[in-house]
Amino acid sequence: MTYKILTINPGSTSTKVGLFEGSNPIKVENLKHDSNELLQFNSVYEQFPFRKKAIMDFLNTNGIELKEIDAFAGRGGLLKPIPGGVYRVNTLMKRHLKYAKFGEHASNLGAILADELAKEAGDKPAFIVDPPVVDEMIEEARYSGMPENPRKSVFHALNQKAVARRYADSIGKKYNELNLVVAHLGGGITIGAHRKGRVIDVNDGLSGDGPFSPERSGGVPTLKLIELCYSGKYEPETMKRKAVGKGGLVAYLKTSDAIKIEEMIKQGDKKAETVYRAMAYQVAKEIGAYHVALSCETDAIIITGGLAHSEMLVSWIKERVESLAKIVVFPGEDELLALAEGSIKALNGEIEIMEYE
Ligand SMILES: Nc1ncnc2c1ncn2[C@@H]1O[C@H](COP(=O)(O)OP(=O)(O)OP(=O)(O)O)[C@@H](O)[C@H]1O
Ligand SMILES: CCCC(=O)O
Question: Does the structure show a pLDDT above 80 at 35?
């Protein structure tokens, strides 16, 4: 049977929606939300009716009826650490996401929206697939050197695993036969060591870890950071925004848009070039670190995310890491397709549907 799946990926300023029939996209759209409109909400959960209406408008405009859809899949949010896979949306999951028990993130609405629409469609199944809290780290990777502050696995799991599987398919291998370093370069940057289908180490994209990115600081000198926190100059929220949201390229260059930055570089802006080169340098160093995490037995390095569209940035990264392993570039992300494919495998019984407990 060919299933129809509605996939939902809520981001900070948009909700990406796609209707798939099997793996074929029938209608995919990026529903942009005015940031001023989102400002009226005090929490991610409060945005629920607003985002639901945007999805219903998308369905109505395209003549899609809820009852014709077989299953609903949302990008899962910040939950407790769990292994990768397809999870049925359940009450505990929704409670953790609603009250942001493990942190606020736009993707917390994915499961909640999928579940609501699935109920309205006549009690259809609702799933999440490879949420950002997928945790398959080996024990050594959890140590930070500060026992009360261990390293955590929070990353672009859905896209990293989707492109890793896509690459494995393309060479006629299975994901769990390969060692891959996957670098997701988007608004946030996460780089993971995938050993035979398991992400044994990765930088935490939401905690100030790893390379700086268009809107995140990445790892910074710790003692100076502590001084800044206690300087009396900044509220805790301001300091958090310096790490996630207002750090990285936007802090140095007042924009997180790499296309604009490349324009600045072409106009001769030396500061823009140095900062952009520094980001490439940090990404390359991090790729090297995860190559070592794979005992230098990496089959391929995959570069993905919006910034993988940039020939300039990718060429600077390649210069430093091309002697380590074959490099493959998958620009953009395949998150909606990954949600659809995971759900179809679950419906077909090809993979186990996991329960969030
Ligand atoms: N053709 C391009 N050339 C250069 N940079 C690009 C291009 N297309 C997108 N980008 C850059 O990619 C970055 C955004 O990447 P992406 O769309 O993956 O981020 P996101 O989805 O907002 O966040 P995340 O990937 O962390 O979830 C921006 O800096 C954007 O300017
Ligand atoms: C939420 C995990 C992915 C990211 O770093 O944004």
Answer: no
Separation of 10 CA from ligand 1 center, angstroms? 16
Rounded to whole angstroms, how far apart are CA atoms 256 and 243?
A: 14
Kindly state the average pLDDT of the residues 138-147: 98
Q: Could you say which architecture CATH assigns to the domain 157-331?
A: 2-Layer Sandwich (3.30)
For the entire predicted model, the pTM comes to 0.95
CA of 207 to the centre of ligand 2 (A): 10
Q: Compute how many other C-beta atoms are within 10 angstroms of the C-beta atom of residue 117.
A: 21
- Looking at ligand 1, which residue's alpha carbon is closest to its atom 28? 257
Q: Coil, strand or helix: which one is 352?
A: coil
DSSP sequence for 243-275 = HBTS-THHHHHS---HHHHHHHHHTT-HHHHHH
Which residue's alpha carbon is at the smallest distance from atom 22 of ligand 1? 187
Q: Using pLDDT thresholds of 50, 70 and 90, give the confidence band for residue 334.
A: confident
Nearest CA to ligand 2 atom 5: 205
Our measurement of the distance from residue 179's CA atom to the centroid of its chain's CA atoms, rounded to an integer in Å, reads: 20
The architecture CATH gives domain 4-135+335-354: 2-Layer Sandwich (3.30)
Distance CA 311, CA 124 (A): 43
Contacts of range 79-83, beta carbons closer than 8 Å, 24 or more positions apart: 79/131, 79/133, 79/356, 80/133, 81/133, 81/134, 81/135, 81/152, 81/153, 82/131, 82/133, 82/134, 82/135, 82/354, 82/356, 83/134, 83/135, 83/136, 83/354
What atom of ligand 1 comes closest to residue 13's alpha carbon? 22
Ligand 2 atom closest to 190 (CA):
5
Domain ranges of the chain: 4-135+335-354, 157-331
pLDDT in tens, 98-115: 999 999 999 999 999 999
Does 4-135+335-354 match 157-331 in CATH topology?
yes
Q: Which two tokens stand for residue 350?
A: 């090809």
180 CA to centre of ligand 2 in angstroms? 19
Q: Which atom of ligand 1 is nearest the CA belonging to 333?
A: 18
Tens of pLDDT, residue by residue over 258-293, are 999 999 999 999 999 999 999 999 999 999 999 999
